[in-house]
Amino acid sequence: MSRKLLLRGGRLVDPASGHDGAADVLVDHGVIAEVDAGVRAAGARVVDCGGLVVCPGFVDLHVHLREPGREDAETIESGSRAAALGGYTAVCPMPNTDPVADNAGVVEMVAARGREVGLVDVFPVGAVTLGQRGAELAELGAMARSAAAVDCFSDDGHPIREARLLRLALEYARAFDAVIADHAEDSSLTDGAQMHEGEVSAMLGLRGWPAAAEEMVVARDLLLAELTGGRLHLCHLSSGGSVELVRAAKARGVRVTAEAAPHHFTLTDEEARSFDPVFKVNPPLREKADVEAVRQGLADGTVDAVATDHAPHAREDKEVEWAAAPPGMLGLETALGLVLSELVEPGWLRLSQALERLTAGPARCRRVPGHGGPIEPGAPANLTAFDPAARWAVDAAALASRARNTPYHGRQLSGRVVHVLLRGSFTVRDGGATR
Ligand code: DOR
Ligand code: ZN
């Protein structure tokens, strides 16, 4: 088989270099060899990309792969396959596994399993505190120096409650230029909360989690980032107030990056009226004004990245009454479709901006070497080709994820992933996973 692959006839959108226009990409031994209009390469296998957008493989800063511990809900293998089919070449699994990824052994195991599966590059996130219990710092240095070379730490699922510990973590992480990613939630205001606090929660009689519970922690975190000079990343911003706080902090030079999840720019708390627990998520779906503020934040770059917070749950756990269901929803296989249908088509973001938030944007938030572009000679061929015009209907039963908890079942979306290359090898070809 030829070691050369020519992606021919596509529209190359590479946000890292600013390129947007017709160009062919020649891949040789897994590495990009040439990028130009009308590349000629004798002996190369030609992949017809006519009508397709060719771009860097997507990077997801925030997924839950459930391994180790809940392999019935997802595994590194099933989650990697879902990611590849979604157009991703890199994912960052959160440490809220069982055992928690709070030491070198677990993060190394997760990274090694990711390599073995080989469908996406897996960059584990380490826990900030031991067991994510919020009492004492985990050995960030040992995880950073481990074979997994962890450079991002989070207690995701929980906030870092104690300001003192967040301060220590931000200071300590500076030594290895790592980032602390916080799940902003003041638990004293969200104890027992079931959904966003507002008119709908009052009507339904469900205990609410006010936007202020997120915003006050965002404000605290920004102040501590400023105090320490450490790198802060804010997970899944859901409220307009949070977006505004980050915008102001960035304007005064605070080292902060932020992400938003597709559900927070596509769904509102109105969905809770169905009492279908598939819509229960943390932080909760908020109001239309919040959805629009998150979209605006993505548009002006206040929000650096779309991150799915892909949170698979086993059917027997999730398909129970609302109050008993765990929060979380699937995201990897619907992210591109939602970005195109809900952000690009209605005119919130241009295609190149939207793809930036899936590639170069997340690659700015932490180290994901070889991912996010630019697409240039010498770079590893981590590439996605998708058909922006193809319409498809989400079918929960057809997802590669082990879990079924997508809130988008039946929804029509634009944008179908056709090919994905990881270091020049197909992980997805003609819309199907290669393994
Ligand atoms: O909805 C959520 N699900 N939010 C989180 O912070 C954790 C996640 C999970 O692990 O299921
Ligand atoms: Zn979270």
Which short descriptors sum up this protein?
globular; seven-stranded mixed beta sheet; binds (4S)-2,6-dioxohexahydropyrimidine-4-carboxylic acid; alpha/beta; 435 residues; five-stranded parallel beta sheet; binds zinc ion; 22% strand
Structural overview:
- It contains 13 helices and 21 strands.
- The chain is of the alpha/beta class.
- The protein has a seven-stranded mixed beta sheet with strand order 3-2-7-18-19-20-21.
- β13, α6 (199-204) and β14 (208-209) form a beta-alpha-beta unit.
- It is globular and about 65 Å long.
- It starts with a strand and ends with a strand.
- Zinc ion binds next to loops.
Sheet-strand content, in percent, reads 15-25%
Distance between the termini: 18 Å
Overall mean pLDDT: 98
Please mark out the parts with pLDDT under 50 across 5 or more consecutive residues, or reply none: none
Strand order of the largest sheet: 3-2-7-18-19-20-21
Q: What Rg is obtained from the alpha carbons, in whole angstroms?
A: 21 Å
| Number of DSSP strand runs | 21
Quick one: overall form? globular
Give a nutshell description of this structure.
Helix content is 28%, strand content 22%. It contains 13 helices and 21 strands.
Chart the SSEs and their pairings:
Blueprint: E1 4-8, E2 11-14, E3 19-22, E4 24-28, E5 31-36, E6 45-48, E7 53-56, E8 58-63, H1 76-85, E9 88-93, H2 104-117, E10 121-122, H3 140-145, E11 152-154, H4 163-174, E12 179-182, H5 187-190, E13 195-196, H6 199-204, E14 208-209, H7 211-228, E15 231-234, H8 240-251, E16 256-260, H9 288-300, E17 305-306, H10 315-318, H11 335-344, H12 351-356, H13 360-365, E18 383-393, E19 412-422, E20 425-429, E21 432-433
Helix pairs in contact: 4-7, 7-8, 8-9
Bound molecules: (4S)-2,6-dioxohexahydropyrimidine-4-carboxylic acid and zinc ion (ZN).
Zinc ion binds at residues 156-157, 183, 235-236.
